[in-house]
Design goal:
5-stranded antiparallel beta sheet, alpha+beta, 32% helix, 8 helices
C-alpha cells in the first residue's frame, strides 16, 4: 500500500438536530446516525430517518444505524475482498437485512406493530480508494475525489406521492435497495437525511449542489477541534438559512481524509 495513503486519517464531523416543526410540537428528533473508523483506516457511516408518522420512529432509526455499524465492524473483511464489486454489494445488502431483522425483533419483543418503528437507512463504507453505499428510502450520499469532482452515490428513493418514501420496515424494502460503488481517490464524503436534500441536490439535474457541499467539505477538512466543529455544525443546521428552507429533522455526516 502507498505510504502516503497509510498516513491519511479520517476527520469526521456529524450531527442530528430536531426540525423546527418537531420542536414546535414538542416531538423528539426522529433522525439517528452512527459512524466508526476501523483499524485499517476504513470509515463506516450509517444514517437513518425515522418516519414522522411512526410512534417509535426514533427507536427504529437508532436500531438501524447501530446494528448496521456493529455488523460491518465485526466482519473483518480484507482490502483484497474490497476489490470485488460482488462482495461489496452482498455485504451492503446483508447489512441492511440484518438491520431490518433487528427492528423486527424489537417490534416483536415490545409487542409493537412493525410500522411503528419505520425508518430509512443509508450505510457507507469508505477508504482512500473507494466509497460504497447501500440505501433504502430517501436521503443522499455524496463523495468528492482528489480533482474536485462531486458524485452523488445515491438518490432519494421516493414513493408515488410527494414526501412519501420507502422504509426499511416495508414489505418489499429489500427489493428497493440502491447500491453504488465508486472507485476513485476519495477526499471527502457526505451523508444526509431527507431534511437537507432539497438544499443539497440540484433536483432538476439530480446532481450534488456544489455551493452546499464544497464549503462544508472545506470546513471538515480544517476542523481540528472536534468539539468546536460539532458545535459549529449544529449551529449551521439550526441557522435561519437552513430552517427557512426546511422544518424537518436534519442529519449531516461529513468526513475528510487528512494527510
Amino acid at each position: 500500500m502507498n505510504k502516503k495513503i497509510e498516513n491519511q486519517q479520517w476527520r469526521i464531523v456529524s450531527a442530528s438536530v430536531c426540525g423546527t416543526s418537531h420542536v414546535k410540537n414538542q416531538q423528539l428528533c426522529q433522525d439517528a446516525h452512527h459512524w466508526q473508523v476501523l483499524n485499517n483506516n476504513m470509515l463506516l457511516v450509517a444514517t437513518a430517518d425515522g418516519a414522522g408518522s411512526a410512534n417509535l420512529g426514533k427507536v427504529g432509526a437508532m436500531i438501524a444505524v447501530e446494528t448496521a455499524i456493529a455488523h460491518l465492524a465485526k466482519q473483518h473483511f480484507s482490502p483484497d475482498q474490497l476489490q470485488h464489486d460482488d462482495f461489496i454489494t452482498d455485504l451492503l445488502n446483508d447489512t441492511i437485512a440484518v438491520s431490518q431483522k433487528a427492528i423486527a425483533d424489537e417490534a416483536m419483543t415490545g409487542n409493537h406493530q412493525l410500522h411503528d418503528l419505520a425508518t430509512t437507512l443509508i450505510i457507507m463504507i469508505a477508504t482512500p480508494n473507494l466509497v460504497a453505499v447501500g440505501q433504502i428510502g430517501d436521503g443522499v450520499a455524496v463523495a468528492k475525489n482528489n480533482i474536485g469532482e462531486l458524485f452523488a452515490l445515491t438518490m432519494p428513493n421516493s414513493g408515488e406521492y410527494i414526501n412519501e418514501t420507502i422504509f426499511l420496515t416495508s414489505i418489499n424494502a429489500l427489493d428497493t435497495v440502491q447500491t453504488k460503488i465508486w472507485r476513485n481517490k476519495i477526499v471527502n464524503i457526505g451523508v444526509l437525511t431527507d431534511g437537507l436534500q432539497m438544499l443539497a441536490l440540484n433536483m432538476t439535474a439530480m446532481e450534488p449542489h456544489k455551493p452546499f457541499f464544497l464549503p462544508l467539505f472545506q470546513f471538515v477538512s480544517s476542523a481540528e477541534n472536534k468539539v468546536l466543529a460539532k458545535d459549529q455544525l449544529i449551529k449551521f443546521l439550526n441557522s435561519d438559512k437552513i430552517t427557512e428552507r426546511t422544518d424537518d429533522d436534519l442529519t449531516l455526516v461529513l468526513a475528510a481524509l487528512i494527510n
